[in-house]
Design goal:
Blueprint: H1 2-61, H2 68-110, H3 119-145
């Protein structure tokens, strides 16, 4: 009887340990996704800043009266910029779709009472959220200045 109780306790501990390992893997994945989100936002910020600098340079270069050939070149450059801006807008839309679900997952990890996150993981998640927040602020500043 004692052996059966010991075996049952061992099985319970093993299941808890396995579940904790699965939760830890899920948390590492979420943390990686949040860090990737911050990097993607930063990339969007760089893309729009580059695009705006190019548009400003093109407008300065062609600010005077243009020949037909220069007008065609100017319009080709503007079309290229417009295509890149469209791609950038799609990236931002994708980020806006990804962010809420990711933040919801992160919230559920932080409030999990059965398998609470370690202090180290909680600190890493807060740091990742701060990175996302700073990247979003920089992106918004770039969007406003355009």
């Amino acid at each position: 009887m004692i052996c059966a109780q010991g075996s049952a306790i061992s099985n319970t501990v093993d299941r808890y340990t396995q579940r904790a390992q699965v939760k830890a893997a899920e948390r590492r994945k979420i943390l990686g996704e949040v860090n990737q989100l911050a990097a993607d936002i930063g990339r969007c910020e760089n893309n729009i800043a580059t695009l705006m600098a190019e548009l400003n340079a093109v407008n300065a270069k062609y600010s005077t009266q243009r020949t037909t050939r220069e007008e065609v070149e100017f319009l080709k450059i503007l079309l290229d910029c417009a295509k890149r801006k469209l791609a950038w807008e799609k990236q931002v839309a994708s980020l806006k779709r990804r962010a809420p679900a990711l933040l919801e997952s992160m919230s559920s990890v932080m409030t999990d009472t059965d398998y609470p996150p370690s202090q180290e993981l909680a600190e890493q998640m807060v740091q990742a959220l701060q990175l996302v927040q700073k990247a979003l602020e920089r992106l918004q500043a770039v969007e406003i200045s355009e």
